[in-house]
Amino acid sequence: MPNKNLKNFASDNAAPVHPALMEALVAENNGPAMGYGNDPTTMDMERRLQDLFGCDLKAFPVATGTAANVLSLAVLTPPYGTIYCHKSSHIEGDECGAPEFYTGGAKLTLLDGDDGKLDPVILDQALSLTDPTNVHHVPPTAISMTQVTEAGTVYSPDEVRAIGDIAQKYQLGLHMDGARFANAVASLGCAPADITWKGGVDILSFGATKNGAMAVEAVVFFNQEKAKEFEFRRKRGAHLFSKSRYLSAQLKRYVENGLWLEMAETANKMACRLAEGISKLPDDKARLHFPVKANMLFATLTETAIERLEQAGFLFYVMGPRHKAEVRLVTSWNTAVTEVDEMLEILGSNN
Q1: Rounded to an integer, what distance in angstroms lies between the CA atom of residue 142 and that of residue 159?
Q2: What are phi and psi of 219, to 5 degrees?
Q3: Total-model pTM
Q4: 1 lies in a domain?
Q5: Measured distance CA(313)–CA(263) in Å, rounded
Q6: Which of 16, 109, 238, 255 has minimal Cβ neighbours within 10 Å of its Cβ?
Q7: Residue range of the domain that includes 187
Q8: What residues are paired with 219 via a beta bridge?
Q9: Same domain as 291, residue 209
Q10: Alpha-carbon distances, residue 85 vs 89, 142, 211, 226 (angstroms)
Q11: pLDDT in tens, 115-174
């Protein structure tokens, strides 16, 4: 059984399912429906995403972010191609080689960029040095960007468009890993379209699991030609669920009445409250590494503070050797103000 006395700052994956989404699952569990996505709920979910993004699109539910990312990339690149991404991207550091496996051997080309973001200048320069016709070299075939980044920062609409323009310039597919897409939209206060298809994104991994869902993401195709191939790759990759309606029921409720943004806004506000408190502490007590734009922050604490937080029941990740005292703190849709303030009190303690 979960320990309700623990305070979760480890991951939004560790948060419980939002009651409204659990209720949607229960409501869906009433009578039969056709399988493999041929049910009314899945069809309605796709229509709701079309309304949300303001365009025609194809949407496919899958159960994990890894599946969403790597099956998308498999559509965009052949086995002999390469995908350009930031060196700290999730597909590089946290997918256990799944992009290479699902693409049949495609390469990841890693690039630098401040605050976890692809730098358009660096990206353009790297691509300008390639020769797609040279059979001795791996040709560039796709770009993948992470929104929210692995540093907790976000790409603005202009930054997405800058990457999209480069993708168009070199005729490459553009994928967005949107595991925390809701947090990015809530942070920017923009329309979902402004940081996706209007910026040149072909495929979006539209995350819900990190933001209150049980286990569901949607692969959203703005470039619908690519969707035809995806259906076969999803089946071949063992991610076509016979009872897809239970995934779709969550997504349908997720975007109804702004629930997805409501949850993301709460998580973002708690992270900003925590970041503001940390920024007021002396550097020898706590220091932030990156600008805090969504619901994830990185900081250097003290070993003593880490021990006291753990003793008080706080869950979080220590990144790297413990003596360096570098941590990742993630807030969720259900993070309480009292939890944030208790953490700040411990961090500011002189005892």
Answers
A1: 17
A2: -90, 115
A3: 0.95
A4: no
A5: 23
A6: 238
A7: 19-254
A8: 60, 205
A9: no
A10: 7, 9, 24, 20
A11: 999 999 999 999 999 999 999 999 999 999 999 999 999 999 999 999 999 999 999 999
